Amino acid sequence: MSNPAADAHTGRWQSYLRDCSAVLDFAEPMQVSGRVTRVAGLVMECVGLRLAVGSACTIPVASGARIEAEVVGFDGDRLFLMPQSDVEGVVPGSRVFPVEAALPRPGSVPHPRRRPSDRARHLPVGARLLGRVVDGAGRPLDNKGPLGSDEMAPINARPVNPLDRAPIKETLDVGVRAINAMLTVGRGQRLGLFAGTGVGKSVLLGMIARYTSADVIVVGLIGERGREVKEFIEQILGPEGMARSAVVAAPADSPPLMRLQGAAYATAIAEHFRDQGKNVLLIMDSLTRYAMAQREIALAIGEPPATKGYPPSVFAKLPVLVERAGNGVEGGGSITAFYTVLSEGDDQQDPIADAARGILDGHIVLDRHLAEAGHYPAIDIEQSISRAMHSITSSQHQQAARKLKQLYSRYERSRDLISVGAYAAGSDPVLDQAIASHGKIESFLCQEIHERSAMTESLGQLTSLFD
């Protein structure tokens, strides 16, 4: 007579041993290693190994530490390695060891590792990261002890089949009146925040993070100043936002590989929560620093520069990262993403800004003149657009938003005439209405940092402007 409990226990162990056997099939039968032949700038060269691009490896140094690196290219038998930290301690002939896939834990089912992306670096994901701050390699930065997460995921996941993605059908309340009413965001939409330096991108992102109706927030602080990382977490995000957030920080002094990996890791964490059916808000600050990190790596391994010093691989990497966000399969979760894009010198034709506009589902432009005039948030509604708004809002909402935009635009075009008294009232009925309602429109578009405006409240105030 069989014992159900014993049979279940035996079945679990048999499944675990099969998982281990699947991993061991890809392991090398003996310890292989290569050696470092050259270190030049950001790149190390290695011979004696055959590894796929994206594979991880380690270099032991005399101090007993190990430098982690990733294969970013090759030339014949030479591999180009990009280290994750300083290369201090590396000597000619230092050994290079590939990182083998770890054995699975009991009860977990590993990836089949049929593709190079499946054999890439795996980092912690899951609910244990909420309220925590980690670097691009998954190491805690907040002095709160180990993560204690048993869940691991590859940082470069396979993309979702575009035909399997659910369409954008629901709105996402971000708590900012100008965005809710004029640039309505849909669950699963990907938008860019375009602005120069010091115009208020990070503060606006903090408002969105605190007031959003999303279940989970994932923040990637890529290439920002170290001071801004702590300020964003403690002052802008605050305890309320941090409680449901996972933060990945790869500041400006991190190696370019860590900045690239930090962006991919933040996206992997968001994908994990999306696969659990949650609605995730992904904030990436900034997409421009991600592109700059890729430019540093590409130029270091010899790729020729193209547009304004950016190699072609930069423009190939951007959509690969952005396309991982968005809705999952029908009935699953979603990733609504905000990417900040730094417009150098407030130039909206910057190559990264121009490329980002083509791959995102909308853009919110922050204007320096508005910021200098005390108009906060400094959103230029004339240049901003949400491409999903027409499919997730009612016709009455769209008409009211269109009317506000027309009146605002008409006033801005005639501002000089009005300010010098050259306009005669009654000459243009639309402009007369724009002048009469300009004060109310300005007040509607402005919002205090600690003020929350829900979606229903925003729509009610929008329609009341024209009653």
Automatic annotation (TrEMBL):
Chemical reaction(s) catalysed: ATP + H2O + cellular proteinSide 1 = ADP + phosphate + cellular proteinSide 2
Superkingdom: Bacteria
Boundaries of every AAA+ ATPase domain copy: 187-370
The keyword Hydrolase is assigned to this record: no
Enzyme class (EC, first level): translocase
Record SMART domains: AAA
Main location: cytoplasm
Keyword Protein transport attributed: yes
Family: Belongs to the ATPase alpha/beta chains family.
Designated name of the protein: Flagellum-specific ATP synthase
Organism of derivation: Massilia terrae
Recorded name of the encoding gene: fliI
